[in-house]
């Protein structure tokens, strides 16, 4: 399966469950694996057939910084939904790292995979 990947997308936003977290911005690092058939873009060397990683990155940042969020699980789900609905990717893996969350850990993260057929499932 072809994919377009984004690694370490930095999002500074209001994120967290505790009161003190609701008054500051914290850094999230997001990794995205998006299923995309790259053959037509490669064969034609034409941008219109590519899944633009820059457009995706900008939209994800815009979406996640719109309002405060408590859980990184919510961030992951919002990103997956955006990619499935707005960019029509058939499958996506989203990893959301919150590197500052646990002092003793390099990072903590959640990982989800979603696809078009499963996007409406509970
Ligand atoms: N599974 C999760 N556990 C926790 C989260 C979270 O988003 N998902 N968040 C917090 C706090 O906001 C924490 O990051 C403060 O350091 C705790 N556990």
Automatic annotation (TrEMBL):
EC id? 4.1.2.25
Name the pathway it acts in: Cofactor biosynthesis; tetrahydrofolate biosynthesis; 2-amino-4-hydroxy-6-hydroxymethyl-7,8-dihydropteridine diphosphate from 7,8-dihydroneopterin triphosphate: step 3/4
Key word Cell inner membrane present in the record?
Answer: no
SUPFAM superfamilies per UniProt: Tetrahydrobiopterin biosynthesis enzymes-like
Show the catalytic activity. 7,8-dihydroneopterin = 6-hydroxymethyl-7,8-dihydropterin + glycolaldehyde; 7,8-dihydroneopterin = 7,8-dihydromonapterin
Which BP terms in the Gene Ontology apply to this protein?
A: folic acid biosynthetic process; tetrahydrofolate biosynthetic process
> Pfam families attached here?
FolB
Q: Into which EC class is this enzyme placed?
A: lyase
For this record, the Gene Ontology CC terms, alphabetical, are: cytoplasm
Q: Which residues form the Dihydroneopterin aldolase/epimerase domain?
A: 4-114
Q: Which SMART domains match?
A: FolB
A GO MF label: isomerase activity
- Tell me the keywords, alphabetical order: Folate biosynthesis, Isomerase, Lyase
Q: Which domain of life is it from?
A: Bacteria
Similarity remark:
Belongs to the DHNA family.
Q: What does the UniProt record say this protein does?
A: Catalyzes the conversion of 7,8-dihydroneopterin to 6-hydroxymethyl-7,8-dihydropterin.
Put simply, this protein is called 7,8-dihydroneopterin aldolase
UniProt source species: Shewanella maritima
